[in-house]
Write a structure and sequence with these properties.
mainly alpha, 73% helix, 0% strand, globular
């Protein structure tokens, strides 16, 4: 019989159909991924350097290298922490709108600016867009349940990578096949960015965040914060009394100090700081190097597209690497760092633009191979909210280091070196890192071998299994000898049943 009446109504109320639950989920995923894809469509970005050095703007190589580009590192350091805090305090959407407005300002200054000061202001707005990227990666997790975090991360990351790849390919096709000028390409980028800004205005604003907005639902009508959801049994009374030492961020900073005792956390955090600083300097100045090596044929978009595709492949393949990271992590880092050092030296020494492109693509692929490994190694031993703080601190320290290097090497108030000399400095930087990681790997392996020699055989090992057999054989041989057995008590002498 088919149930009917109140029973059916009760079951329908307790068990909503899959379509009612799946439809909002699919719509939300589609809109977020579509926005993430459209926000990356900037086909003129790969050709900003030749645009500035070309007849449209007619800046000199020294102005672009030593006066305009260094401003990006300085401004990024200034805006990183405020934007990080505002992202959580304002609940993501306002910062995404700010990012869209900053992108529009960047391209307006590119098209209408005429002086070095205008281009420096352009770098300021571009640094805001870079700092606001965390808003999208955090925002997508605030709208879904924790059970869907992994799927959401995959969808959003795929949308961003596809957008970057499409943008680079589109820009290269418009320049090479369509013979579109760099100025027209920037107008196309401006139109696409205005459209993505309109999309950001219709994003749903979440009611909770990671660090702030922790009021109870009864008081503010908001959903519990992510920290409350992750720790439902944690005491909340003291935290809501306003004591500074119980504030979420302050408590997490104390927990961060305790977490630094973990060797793997220290290792991968240091890698993140030192390698990321040099990596982004290479990315910033590679386009300038290309313009010096070869000024006529421009395939910057193709190089960016290939590096994005290779980075996605290496990031995906890194998830299948299964080794004892506590033992081999430093050796893996040393090997990748040695490859990076060799590729940077190739970019410095070659006069072929194609070798320069290939070295750049492989360099970015090598870095992207270690990023998901470092992310997993750091996040595996931390809570979700503490993990976000660790990555924020690592990014800030890498930015500080990058700014110091920029001030000494690139800025005209420092050494003001030409771009080729800068790449020689970066080669030495990676070479020093390689030597340090290699020495650390050798030390870890030697300690492991010494501990393995001193340690007793593990239960169940071949040596452990062989010991009772050898003992039995020795006792059997001793029984064949005519000597009298020693006098032992009944408790000390094994009985036949015990031997059997």
């Amino acid at each position: 019989m088919v149930p009917s009446g109140p029973l059916v109504q009760k079951q329908a109320a307790l068990e909503p159909g899959p379509d009612a639950e799946r439809k909002p989920w699919r719509c939300l995923v589609f809109y977020l991924c579509f926005y993430g894809f459209m926000a990356q469509l900037r086909p003129g970005e790969s050709f900003i350097t030749p645009y500035l050095l070309g007849p449209d703007k007619n800046f000199t190589l020294e102005q672009v290298t030593n006066e305009i580009t260094p401003v990006l590192s300085y401004c990024y350091l200034l805006v990183l922490v405020p934007v990080f805090l505002l992202t959580d305090y304002l609940r993501y959407k306002p910062v995404l709108v700010l990012q869209g407005l900053s992108y529009v300002a960047v391209w307006l200054l590119l098209l209408l600016g005429t002086s070095v000061r205008h281009m420096q202001c352009m770098e300021l707005f571009y640094s805001v867009t870079m700092a606001a990227r965390i808003a999208y990666s955090s925002y997508v997790f605030s709208l879904v349940r924790p059970a869907r975090y992994q799927r959401m991360a995959g969808y959003s990351r795929a949308a961003v990578l596809l957008g970057v790849f499409t943008s680079s390919v589109l820009g290269q096709l418009l320049v090479t096949v369509g013979r579109v000028s760099f100025s027209t390409l920037n107008y196309v980028s401006l139109g696409l960015l205005i459209f993505s800004l309109v999309l950001a205005l219709f994003l749903k604003r979440p009611r909770r965040s990671l660090f702030f907005n922790r009021d109870s639902p009864a008081r503010s009508g908001a959903s519990p914060s992510e920290l409350d959801r992750m720790n439902p049994d944690a005491p909340r009374g003291a935290a809501r009394l306003g004591a500074w030492r119980d504030w979420t961020l302050v408590r997490m900073l104390r927990e961060l100090g305790d977490s630094l005792r973990q060797p793997q956390l220290r290792l991968w955090s240091l890698w993140w700081v030192f390698n990321s600083a040099a990596y982004y300097l290479i990315v910033y100045y590679a386009h300038i190097l290309w313009n010096v090596v070869h000024t006529t044929t421009v395939y910057n978009g193709a190089a960016d597209a290939a590096s994005t595709l290779l980075g996605a492949i290496t990031s995906f393949s890194a998830g299948f690497v299964k080794i004892r990271w506590a033992l081999w992590a430093k050796l893996v880092i040393a090997s990748v760092t040695a490859v990076q050092a060799g590729l940077v030296f190739l970019m410095y020494s070659t006069n072929s633009i194609w070798l320069c492109y290939v070295a750049f693509v492989l360099f970015r692929g090598a870095y992207q191979f270690l990023v998901p490994i470092a992310t997993f190694q750091i996040a595996s031993s931390l809570s979700k909210e503490l993990c976000a703080l660790v990555f924020g601190v690592n990014t800030f320290l890498a930015t500080v280091l990058k700014t110091i290097i920029t001030l000494i090497v690139s800025d005209k108030r420092g050494l003001g070196l030409p771009v080729h000399s800068q790449f020689l400095i970066y080669f030495g930087y990676f070479l020093v890192l390689f030597v340090i990681y290699l020495l650390g790997a050798i030390l870890v392996i030697v300690q492991h071998i010494q501990e393995a020699r001193r340690a007793p055989p593990e239960p169940g090992s071949p040596a452990e299994k062989a010991m009772p057999m050898l003992s039995t054989q020795s006792s059997g041989l001793s029984n064949l000898q005519p000597t009298a057995p020693p006098q032992t008590s009944p408790e000390q002498h094994p009985q036949p049943e015990a031997k059997a």
